[in-house]
Amino acid sequence: MKKVLAPLGLAILGHGFAQETLDPAAISWLLVSTAFVFFMVIGLAFFYGGLVRRKNALNTMMMSFVSLGIVGITWAVIGYSLAYAEGGRFIGGLGYFLLNNVGLDGEGVPTVLDFAFQGAFAIITAALISGAIVERMRFGAYMLFITIWSVVIYAPMAKWVWGGGFFDNLLGNSAIDFAGGTVVHINAGIAALVLTLVIGNRKDFGNRAMLPHQVPFTLLGAGILWFGWFGFNGGSAYAADSLAALAMTNTLLAPAATIVVWAIIDLLRTGKVTAVGLATAVVVGLVAITPAAGVVSPLSAILIGVIATFPSYFIITWRASSGLDDSLDVFGAHGVGGITGALLTGLFVSTAWGGDVNGSVGQVLTQFVAVAIAILYSGVGSYLIVQLVGLFTPLRAEDRAEAQGLDVPMHGEEAYSDGEGALLIPVSTSVKAEQVINGTVRSGV
């Protein structure tokens, strides 16, 4: 992601001086791209919501929607400043704290627009994590976790990769992450794996089939995600130019290749091509091309989509038969897909297609070191954060609530109601209503 921003001092000099550096075309494209990335959060809610059992559909979708509020505010208060204000190589300063000095000036685009675009990235990264712990994590605990995580884990990693941090010089090379393979997908995938291990499996995991309740929702979500990803990758060019065109083209081709290979593997293994499988393939292909979208040729994008299919497919297949309940395969799709894409970026990057270097063993090694650091930081940091959250509130829903489904116990609502309605009785004055919400009402009473 080639961020083009005015230095903090330029913003202080005044709107009139900096206004001359703004690019109307870049502003127009980034406005559209910001809306695209925002819409991806809605797509993620449908993608995840369709994959869970109907009694948890609302709770699962709410985990994506609440990220819009929580991470949107943490990004405004401190996250954007820690990621992009002038500071050290490991963390930014407080120059943009509480949106101070974030205004209408900038280099290419106004800083206020850059704030919004980058904020949409932060929001969806936190929302991605939820897919690993659906149907069992307390909603309040999840809210507290992403509040801390978005500041302590996401913002520093954005600084390292995009904000002039120490990833600019690893083993003599700069780690390449065009649009978020490391910052977004590896980061979220590792955090999801940690939460899965700490919180544990669903009570029904391994004992009964937990089938998706609404596969069309998942297909719809995958389509919205793919649509939004054109802004996710294309907008990361920070200009309406040939680089944005390349990123969008590669965003079309990589998942297209993944779909084809995934379908062939499905046919060879089971004789059937599943809708959930192809929706997952779309995400894997999109994740894999993200770090390379604006630095590799279209043919290389196809190869990245093909190659990335295999590790994610087999990790997801293995996970389904293992004792690991990463419920919606966040690690398999985003973690593994992100790692694969990051390493392949070092191999396929080309100066003829927007890159600053050509692919080499040295660049692959730099990508590997960057991936290792991201895994270590996200893994250890996420573990410490979830343990901290556990000191203040239980992480898991009660067994009774989990068995009933989390929609009613956590939200007092349900995604689907049967019948024509029910008498509404205030919980505060009705023992019966409280029993219904808690799942303790007896049949026939």
Instruction: Give start-end ranges of low-pLDDT stretches.
Output: 4-18
Continuous helix count: 16
| Rg over C-alpha atoms, rounded to the nearest angstrom | 22 Å
Largest sheet: none
**Approximate helicity band:** 55-70%
- Arithmetic mean pLDDT: 92
Q: Give the C-level CATH assignment.
A: Mainly Alpha
Q: What is the fourth-level CATH superfamily?
A: Ammonium transporter AmtB like domains
Beta strand count: 0
CATH architecture: Orthogonal Bundle
In sequence order, what are the helices and strands, one letter per element? HHHHHHHHHHHHHHHH
Number of domains: 1
Distance between the termini: 61 Å
Structural class, from secondary structure content? mainly alpha
CATH topology: Ammonium transporter fold
Commentary on this structure:
The protein is mainly alpha-helical and 445 residues long. The chain contains 16 helices and no strands. The chain has helices at 8-13, 15-18, 24-51, 57-84, 111-129, 139-162, 181-199, 215-234, 242-270, 275-289, 298-320, 330-348, 361-392, 399-404, 407-411, 431-438. α4 (57-84) runs parallel beside α6 (139-162), α8 runs parallel beside α10 and α10 crosses α11. It starts with 7 loop residues before the first helix and ends in a 7-residue tail after the last helix.
Quick take:
The chain is mostly helical and 445 residues long.
List the helices and strands and how they pair.
Blueprint: H1 8-13, H2 15-18, H3 24-51, H4 57-84, H5 111-129, H6 139-162, H7 181-199, H8 215-234, H9 242-270, H10 275-289, H11 298-320, H12 330-348, H13 361-392, H14 399-404, H15 407-411, H16 431-438
